[in-house]
Amino acid sequence: QVQLVESGGGSVHPGGSLRLSCTASDGTASDGIFGRVDMGWYRQAQGQERQLIVGFTRLDAVNYVRSVRGRFFASKDHAKKTVYLQVENLIPEDTAIYFCEVAPDDWGQGIQVAISS
Questions:
Q1: Given CA atoms 17, 55, 47, 70 in this order, what sign does their dihedral have?
Q2: pLDDT for 6-23, tens place per residue?
């Protein structure tokens, strides 16, 4: 089992940007983790179900849902065991708790992103 920690959330105005990070715990279990398994970024808005917004395969193929395409950008730093999600041109509808997950079913604790004027 791999432990994941998200960071980089916060509160911004519409049009603002953040960089979310998902870092895997130290240890041999997480060595090369993001090159070995698929991962995803999800978000859950209040009163709604958790939704996959970015799928990032172990071979670096990335798929974005339409609502974030062109505004969200995922990248990896294998040496740091970290996957980033650069979120730009934020809108109020992006307000949610954001989670990262690695296959088969390891999740971070989630981090709040809030957009308000």
A1: positive
A2: 999 999 999 999 999 999
